[in-house]
């Protein structure tokens, strides 16, 4: 990577010289000083045509500075910290580009000495030194480049004695420069040429250039991270001799650049200005070896309705190898499907974006056949994404529409989602059309996350995204290998009403906002009263009017005029309620202890978000998630061995686990005979638990291995099929009737439902049936409580502990209370984790009683339990009336009701299992994560079947009820 600095001394007057030098030298980054141009007169267009992005600051005279880069560039600072009221014409600008922090500076000349200008020079130098202390030890590579107007040693001037009283060579200047370097900076040119006279400036007078009467005023200071990459450097001395050139010559260094994210191919430089380069139509270049890489990938038709992979919110930035970082853009997430010139831009909620026609047109002409993932943003004049401007970009003249692309999922018929992110990024970088302002790659930075986050805050960005470089793409998953860290507190909210204060002339005073909880209940989280002008309020009222309703949509009608410590008096606010159909985004200072937003500001409407999907984002613990991702990456275990040709699969033996997996090939489809029946297993490589790397193949192998223990609890029982054909984050649905759908060999039970309709229920009789259900996407198994031989008489009674906001230790406490009650009446009970959030406690009945009798008994038990722990439990069936308490559910004991069966997998992150536990294990510290697909088989080898008693003779219910009466019930 080549980096240069050039005191241009009047950029517009010397633009031809600058462009000639850029064309010949082709540096990647350039720092410019002494622009002598107002901001509005900076030649951005001409530099852009030459292949350079730019940030700058300047004035009509004095010393403006700029940074140019062939890659995307972000401004970090536009001045040094602190201020000087006497003089303001020195310049400092700090940028982030090519994974480097670049500080471009012009230090005051300071002449005449002595005098106020020299004093100011030293003050400014001290401000630079103070700022440099915070940069020297950062994880990011940092360079401080520019015209320091200091000659550090006698080697830096052709005649030291001449400059003894010159501000450029005064001892105070040199000592200040030395103190700066002594912080740990490397003077790059002096490092490369320790004993040579190197000059970067030659005066116009007395043929100084011809006599080589020069000075070294332009310096590169490198921190440790970048100094280790220094290869070579020098001065483009000949440029000083060009007609009309500056009195300075460009100075350059070369860095070792083994893996520069976003680096531009120098062969592409100037291509934009070469009409012949595009004469044959759109050119889509491909990297060497791409064809071989694609050859081994599965070929699939153009996917439809792809939902984007989601990032998990975490609470703080981190520094960890194996991660790359991107800017979190403040816009609309959009998946672009491009095929044969037809383009669809799809939102994260599968809505079609029709308002961004220029992007569609650009992609249609691109020549791509691909699916891209990215973010549509509107950039303001400062180059920052402006979400408000995006919503009305056609009428916002200063807004520049951009589609930032950060991933590619499908290319020329090949599925790329199974490739690591780094490989997908390489393909994206190669095939994405270059040099287009509206279509840009979102640069990936291989840097320290903490430093990158701090840079994002300084740039006033929304935040950053951290992605494991080896992560696969899992559609619609909330991944733990993609993490987002917000620099601002932003939240999508549902608009459920608006208020008007007494005496106001506005359309409304504030919006009443809420989010849905895990039970699907809309909770009020406060009001937002700023962020919209009269025009925006008028636009919003047009959307509100069709949605006005008399009823509050919140679970509890809020007091919208409630005073607070920040507003102690009431304002006479009256609420108008709206059907919860609209979503907006707000920024806020904090959440109060009672769950309300404080200092909330409206940022814009979110037409791409389904209101039912709006929940409060709670940041997860960064350290824990990063460690989990690291363990997952380092502990990739091949769980199956190559199939031995001709080897038969062993038949299940009751009570004995099958230790060998059923499916051992890497193929996406396999056929196997199970119990004499040929089964076809498809989409084996699909990740059903994407965050945990657990595939559909893993699910089949688990059910094959656990079948001997599980089948006794499925045999002869009607099954309710809960199907997840797309994995745990895909759409799911229940199927009870298998009439004309089940294989001919499968056993079924004819049954007329309450409407008199004839149904065939599948019976879970054998392993073939179990695996056939799994092939339909039945992640969990849901058997009836009764068998086909006695459908009205359950084999057991179940008490389901269903928490709301409780910690699992409180579930444990409730289970222990159930145990105390049952022990008092000598009733055996068998606990198991639900695999989701609660616990199930089974009481054997031996099919001797009806469902009504079973439910009555369960009701008596939970009433006794609820009396003991009323603070956090309830018997209220309606979710809205539970008040956030744990539901002691006895109503599951009814015909046709099902819960996840014993040893069943659950469609939850972690691939958890509903696992029997001993009562000794039911104590604080037990969690769902203790039992997963990864360890369940090993646990069963040690414990055996802890649930055997559930299918035993059963209790004498009538004698038990007599004992209950002795307790005073």
Describe the fold and architecture.
The radius of gyration is 35 Å and the shape is elongated. Helix content is 20%, strand content 24%. The chain has 969 residues and is α+β, with helices and mostly antiparallel strands. The chain has 5 domains: 254 residues, 4-Layer Sandwich (Deoxyribonuclease I, Chain A), CATH 3.60.10; 197 residues, 2-Layer Sandwich (D-amino Acid Aminotransferase, Chain A, domain 1), CATH 3.30.470.30; 111 residues, Nucleic acid-binding proteins (OB fold (Dihydrolipoamide Acetyltransferase, E2P)); 102 residues, no CATH class; 171 residues, Alpha-Beta Complex (DNA primase, PRIM domain), CATH 3.90.920.10. About 5% of the residues have low confidence. It has 19 helices and 45 strands.
Q: What's the overall geometry?
A: elongated
Strand content: 15-25%
Quaternary organization: single chain
Mean pLDDT: 86
CATH topology of the largest domain: Deoxyribonuclease I, Chain A
Distance between the termini: 83 Å
CATH class of the largest domain: Alpha Beta
Rg from C-alpha positions? 35 Å
CATH architecture of the largest domain, by name, is 4-Layer Sandwich
Indicate the percent of residues in helices.
10-25%
Number of DSSP-assigned strands: 45
**Treating each run of at least 4 consecutive H or I residues as one helix, how many helices?**
19
Q: Main beta sheet: strand number and arrangement?
A: 6 strands, mixed
Structural class estimated from helices and strands: alpha+beta
Strand line-up across the major sheet? 3-4-2-1-14-13
């Amino acid at each position: 990577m080549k980096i240069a600095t050039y005191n241009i001394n009047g950029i517009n007057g010397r633009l031809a010289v600058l462009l000639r030098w850029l064309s010949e030298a082709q540096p990647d980054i350039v720092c410019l000083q002494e622009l002598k141009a107002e901001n509005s007169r900076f030649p951005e267009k001409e530099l852009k045509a030459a292949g350079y992005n730019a940030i700058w600051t300047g004035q009509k005279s004095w010393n403006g500075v700029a940074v140019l880069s062939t890659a995307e560039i972000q401004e970090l600072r536009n001045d040094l910290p602190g201020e000087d009221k006497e003089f303001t014409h020195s310049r400092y600008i700090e940028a982030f580009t090519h994974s480097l922090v670049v500080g471009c500076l012009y230090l005051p000349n300071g002449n005449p000495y002595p005098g106020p200008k020299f004093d100011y020079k030293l003050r400014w130098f001290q401000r630079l030194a103070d700022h440099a202390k915070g940069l020297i030890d950062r994880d990011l590579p940092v360079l401080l480049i520019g015209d320091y107007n200091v000659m550090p040693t006698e080697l830096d001037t052709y005649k030291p004695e001449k400059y003894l009283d010159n501000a450029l060579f005064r001892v105070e200047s040199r000592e200040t420069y030395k103190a700066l370097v002594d912080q740990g900076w490397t003077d790059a040119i002096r490092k490369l040429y320790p004993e040579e006279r190197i000059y970067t400036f030659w005066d116009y007078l007395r043929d100084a250039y011809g006599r080589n009467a020069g000075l070294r005023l332009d310096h590169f200071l490198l921190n440790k991270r970048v100094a280790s990459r220094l290869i070579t450097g020098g001065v483009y001395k000949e440029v000083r001799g060009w007609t009309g050139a500056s009195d300075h010559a460009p100075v350059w260094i070369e860095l070792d650049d083994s893996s520069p994210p976003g680096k531009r191919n120098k062969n592409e430089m100037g291509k934009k200005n070469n009409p012949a380069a595009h004469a044959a139509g759109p050119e889509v270049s491909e990297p060497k070896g791409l064809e071989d890489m694609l050859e081994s990938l599965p070929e699939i038709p153009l996917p439809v309705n792809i939902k984007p992979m989601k990032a998990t919110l975490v609470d703080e930035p981190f520094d960890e190898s194996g991660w790359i970082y991107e800017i979190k853009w403040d816009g609309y997430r959009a998946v672009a499907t491009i095929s044969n010139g037809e383009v669809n831009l799809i939102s994260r909620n599968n809505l079609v974006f029709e308002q961004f026609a220029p992007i569609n047109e650009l992609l249609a002409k691109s020549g791509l056949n691909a699916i891209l993932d990215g973010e549509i943003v509107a950039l303001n004049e400062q180059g920052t994404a402006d979400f408000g401007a995006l919503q009305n970009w056609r009428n916002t003249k200063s807004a520049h529409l951009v589609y930032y692309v950060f991933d590619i999922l499908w290319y020329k018929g090949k599925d790329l989602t199974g490739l690591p992110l780094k490989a997908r990024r390489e393909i994206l970088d190669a095939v994405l059309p270059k040099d287009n302002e509206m279509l840009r790659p979102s640069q990936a930075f291989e840097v320290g996350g903490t430093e990158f986050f701090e840079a994002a805050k300084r740039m006033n960005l929304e935040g950053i995204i951290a992605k494991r470089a080896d992560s696969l793409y899992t559609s619609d998953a909330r991944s733990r290998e993609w993490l987002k860290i917000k620099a601002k507190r932003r939240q999508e909210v549902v608009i459920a009403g608006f208020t008007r204060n007494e005496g106001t002339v506005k359309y409304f005073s504030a919006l009443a906002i809420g989010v849905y909880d895990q039970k699907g209940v809309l909770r009020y989280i406060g009001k937002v009263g700023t962020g919209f002008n009269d025009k925006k309020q008028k636009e919003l009222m047009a959307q509100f009017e069709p949605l006005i309703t008399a009823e509050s949509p919140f679970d509890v009608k809020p007091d919208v005029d409630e005073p607070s410590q920040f507003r102690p008096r009431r304002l006479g606010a009256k609420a108008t309620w709206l059907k919860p159909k609209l979503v907006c985004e707000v920024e806020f200072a904090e959440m109060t202890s009672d769950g309300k937003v404080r200092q909330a500001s409206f940022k814009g409407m979110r037409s791409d978000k389904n209101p039912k999907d709006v929940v409060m984002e709670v940041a997860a613990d960064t350290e824990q998630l990063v460690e989990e991702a690291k363990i997952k990456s380092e502990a990739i275990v091949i769980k199956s061995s190559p199939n031995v040709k001709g080897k038969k699969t062993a038949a299940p033996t009751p009570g004995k686990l099958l230790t060998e997996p059923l499916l051992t090939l890497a193929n996406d489809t396999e056929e196997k005979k199970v119990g004499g029946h040929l089964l076809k297993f498809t989409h084996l490589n699909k990740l059903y638990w994407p965050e945990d790397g657990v595939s559909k193949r893993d699910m089949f192998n688990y059910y094959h291995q656990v079948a001997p223990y599980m089948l006794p609890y499925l045999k002869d029982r009607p099954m309710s099929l809960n199907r997840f054909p797309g994995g745990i984050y895909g759409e799911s649905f229940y199927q009870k009737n298998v009439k004309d759908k089940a294989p001919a060999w499968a056993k079924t039970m004819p049954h007329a439902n309450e409407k008199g309709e004839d149904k065939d229920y599948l019976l879970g009789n054998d392993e073939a049936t179990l695996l056939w259900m799994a092939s339909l996407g039945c992640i969990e198994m849901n058997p009836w409580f009764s068998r086909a031989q006695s459908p009205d008489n359950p084999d057991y009674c179940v008490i389901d502990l269903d928490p709301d906001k409780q910690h699992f230790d409180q579930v444990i406490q409730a289970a222990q209370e159930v145990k105390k009650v049952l022990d008092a009446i000598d009733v055996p009970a068998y606990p198991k984790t639900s695999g989701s959030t609660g616990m199930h406690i089974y009481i054997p009945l031996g099919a001797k009683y009806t469902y009504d009798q079973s439910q009555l008994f369960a009701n008596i038990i939970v009433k006794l339990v609820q009396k003991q722990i009323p603070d956090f439990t309830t018997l209220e069936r309606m979710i809205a009336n539970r008040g956030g308490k744990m539901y002691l559910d006895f109503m599951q004991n009814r015909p046709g009701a099902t819960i996840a069966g014993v040893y069943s997998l659950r469609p939850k992150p972690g691939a958890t299992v509903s696992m029997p536990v001993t009562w000794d294990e039911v104590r604080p510290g037990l969690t769902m994560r203790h039992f997963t697909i990864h360890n369940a088989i090993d646990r069963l080898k040690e414990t055996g079947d802890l649930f055997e008693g559930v299918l035993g003779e059963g209790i004498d219910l009538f004698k038990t009820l007599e004992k209950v009466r002795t307790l005073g019930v």
